[in-house]
Design goal:
Layout lengths: L4 E9 L7 E9 L2 E7 L10 E4 L4 E4 L1 E6 L38 H8 L2 E6 L7 E9 L5 H4 E11 L2 H8 L8 H28 L7 H10 L5 E5 L2 H13 L4 E5 L7 H7 L3 E3 L17 H8 L4 E3 L11 H10 L4 H6 L3 H6 L17 E4 L10 E6 L2 E5 L3
Parallel strand pairs: 1-4, 1-5, 6-7, 9-10, 10-11, 11-12, 12-13
Antiparallel strand pairs: 1-2, 2-3, 5-14, 7-8, 8-9, 14-15, 15-16
Helix pairs in contact: 4-5, 4-6
């Protein structure tokens, strides 16, 4: 049976990778984009179901490259908090964010109401190594169908959080030295594990497996990135130093003082996911929080993604984060890229997501005006070509 063909007609379309289409047609079928272009310059196939889009603005589905939705539910305390596995050890690479996610969390509905169609979900930052992160689409509740990448990186944390959690317990790490030492030693243990595993395979011996070290083996082979929680410049430098020592792919998370490292970020081609900028100075390492870092990094050619860090900033307000970045100097186009194609590139999914291009997933958001204007709202959200959110319904 042939999949039904759909056409959104008359809307202003922002493909991101391509020029704005003032009054366009967007065609999709079977969850994939077929074509887009100006009305009158693109053929409208017979039998296509037409959806009126006059007066609307269409963007790719928005992407938040750092959240805790589904794993840290807003209205619960202990019952819905599965963010950190603390107490026994500050090193827990065997933990998987995907195993702690509640797909019925109201935040997934909130995401769709704001046009957010893809999210990265990470463990918290209490531990030096928190576990693996995952990438999901926000249309649930069948978690297996939501998953884009169940093991998309290794979450590590520098700075105040591990110091506070374990220092209060009189355990290591109680200092930044302790954090770095634990991380290094664990990576060395993973190197040794990989060598022993290879030797046992070659010799036909039984090898005792370790779930956490298996994950770190993928990290050492550069199959997945190190995703380093760090705010202060010294912690950012430490993350870079250790990543270079072990030849790891690195993504810097939060990056409050990342502008101080611009020459290094340029030289090493390191992306930064910046945020939550819609937050207060909740701790000392966030003293320099503000929107200026986004402008400085973008001007320097650093690949930047804006994030909500939900639940620090509710995920449906990702467009407001972009609007604030425009207020502080980003162009409109740069801000849109920072919540679409840039996070898609950082997540390794730009072949499927982040722009409206034939062949990519039919994930897009429809707004009743400029998405960054305070008076505009998302009126419809599409995931894999299905309208999964509609204002008022």
């Amino acid at each position: 049976m042939t999949e039904k063909l759909y056409a959104l007609i008359g809307a202003e379309i922002h493909p991101v990778e391509g020029k704005r289409i003032k009054k366009g047609i967007l065609l999709w079928q079977g969850g994939k984009i077929l074509a887009l272009g100006e009305q009158g310059k693109i053929d409208l196939p017979a039998g296509a179901e037409q959806i009126e889009g006059s007066g609307m603005v269409v963007t790719p589905g928005l992407i938040d490259a750092h959240t805790h939705i589904g794993i840290q539910e807003e209205i619960y305390e202990l019952e819905g908090d599965d963010l950190n596995e603390t107490g026994e050890s500050a090193v827990t690479p065997e933990m998987r964010a995907i195993d702690g996610i509640n797909p019925y969390d109201l935040a997934f509905r909130d995401a769709l109401s704001g046009g957010v169609t893809t999210v990265m979900i990470a463990p918290g930052s209490a531990n030096v190594i928190g576990g693996s992160v995952c990438v999901l689409k926000t249309l649930g509740p069948d978690l297996d169908k939501m998953i884009l990448d169940p093991e998309a990186g290794v979450k590590v944390a520098f700075g105040e959080n591990p110091k506070r959690v374990y220092g209060e317990q009189k355990k290591t790490p109680a200092s930044r030295m302790g954090i770095a030492a634990l991380l290094r030693q664990t990576l060395i243990n993973a190197q040794d594990y990989e060598l022993k595993k290879q030797k046992s395979i070659e010799e036909g011996d039984v090898h005792e497996r370790d779930l956490g070290l298996e994950l770190l083996g993928r990290l050492l082979r550069r199959e997945i990135p190190l995703r380093a929680h760090a705010h202060r410049a010294d912690d950012l430098y430490t993350a870079i130093r250790i990543a270079k020592e072990f030849n790891l792919k690195l993504i810097l998370e939060h990056g409050t003082e990342a502008a101080r490292l611009i020459p290094v970020l340029q030289k090493e081609n390191i992306p930064v996911v910046v945020g939550p900028s819609f937050a207060n100075r909740a701790k000392v390492e966030m003293e320099q929080i503000g929107w200026q870092v986004v402008k400085s990094l973008v001007d320097a050619g650093v690949l930047v993604s804006l994030i909500t860090d939900h639940g620090c900033t509710p995920i449906q307000y990702l467009t407001l984060c972009a609007a604030m970045a425009v207020r502080h100097g980003l162009t409109w186009e740069q801000a849109l890229a920072a919540i679409t194609i840039n996070p898609a590139k950082i997540l390794g999914l730009s072949h499927r997501l982040g722009s409206l291009v034939p062949g990519k997933d039919a994930d897009f958001a429809v707004f009743n005006g400029d998405p960054f204007h305070y008076n505009s709202r998302c009126v419809a959200t599409y995931v894999d070509g299905r309208r999964v959110w509609e204002l008022g319904r």
